[in-house]
Amino acid sequence: MKNLNKTKVFLLAVLLTSIIFSNYNYTKEKTGGDSKVYIKLVVDGLACPFCAYGLEKKINTIEGAENLFINLKDGFVTFEVPRENLPGEEKLKEIVEDAGFVAREISFSENPFSKEKKEDQQ
Amino acid sequence: MKIEIIMLLGLLLFAGCSTNEEYRFVREISLNGMKPISIAIAEDGIWVSDSENNRVVKIDDNGKIINEFDGFRRPMQIGLANGKLYVPEYLTDSIKVIIDGKVIPFNLGIKPNSPAGIDADASIIAVADFYNHRIIVKDKKETYTFGNKGHKKGELFYPTDVKIIGDKIVVADAYNNRVQVFSKKGKAISVIGEKDTLKVASGIDADENKIFVTDSNNNRVLVYDWEGNRLQTLTQNISYPVDVVLNNNKLFISNFHKGTISIYEK
After folding, report:
1. Under 8 Å between Cβ of B249 and B20
2. Which listed CATH number (3.40.50.620, 3.40.50.200, 3.40.720.10, 3.30.70.100) goes with A36-120?
3. pTM of structure
């Protein structure tokens, strides 16, 4: 009886591990991997190129930040960072302020943001 | 009758002279998707800093690219002097020079924090040091700076362009929304445009008689005399102007968001 219980517990543990692992892999596949987080900053006054590129320069100081895209027309910036270097909201606000702006909106996502304003408003 | 004729001729002469002083829109060059920050006029074309695409290009009168230099990291307000094109590179805090088809680094002597604009003459090179709110000047003996962060006369708030003219340096004091005139050694001489509600005075040019400034957020270019009197306001076909260049009585204005260069002529 005791041995039977042990076997059941063992099988249950294996089953649970398999379920968790397969779900982890599924999520990883679906979101394009767990290694990156996508960030979007909506900033007022970004039409000025001196300011926009200044913000770009500050964002480049975040370790591993890449694929930065600036939408000057609609006033937002998107980029991606490795999950292990993910800056908090406060840090991002500080970066934006250092560049001479105030962040109106900060968003994080597992998926890339659209480069057009229209789709993001949906 | 004689007096009337003389008066009429005088009036016509006056009207003729007045008209001659005004700049009028002539045409617009489309840049096919570029966002021009700055322009410089060469003998065989127009240099354009296309910051969005991290390059500097030379175009012909119709906007066709005739020469291209890639690999810059946000080239900003360029300056052409003595056959050299000076390019301030905003993201790398460095200056590069295009000469004889080659891009070479230029040692300024003091490191800027986002160099936004540059000009040179036979004796000095001046750089608008955006995030340090100052101007860096390199002459034949030394490199020195003037200006610091602030809003009073002689202080700067995010300067974006410089122009050396005679013994003076004119500065686009962009976020103080004005132009300032300094001596080459940095003595503050005058402030121009403070009462005209400029919104981002980003680009400038000047000659012995006039100072031209782009008023970016107001979509206009203002023309002043050296005493600070506003002589003309240009608005036709001007959309978010960032730079203005005077060349042979023509004004070339870069329309950043629209991706064009507007040409005015006297």
Report:
1. no
2. 3.30.70.100
3. 0.84
Q: Which domain holds residue B197?
A: 24-265
Q: Which helix (H) or strand (E) holds A98?
A: helix A89-98
If DSSP codes are grouped into helix, strand and coil, which group holds residue A88? coil
What's the CATH code of the domain at B163? Answer: 2.120.10.30
Q: How many domains does chain B have?
A: 1
CA B163 to CA B175: how far, in whole Å?
17
Neighboring chain B residues of A53 at a CB cutoff of 8 Å: 51, 74, 76, 90-91, 114
Measured CA to CA, the distance from residue A110 to residue B55 in angstroms comes to 32
Residue of B37, B131, B217 with shortest CB distance to A49: B37
Q: What is the per-residue pLDDT for B9?
A: 54
Domain range summary for chain A, segments of one domain joined by +:
1-30, 36-120
Q: Note whether A54 contacts B257, CB cutoff 8 Å.
A: no
The CA distance from B229 to B148, in Å, is: 26
ipTM given for this complex: 0.88
- The pLDDT confidence band at residue A34, using thresholds 50, 70 and 90, is low
CA distance, residue B67 to nearest chain A CA (Å): 24
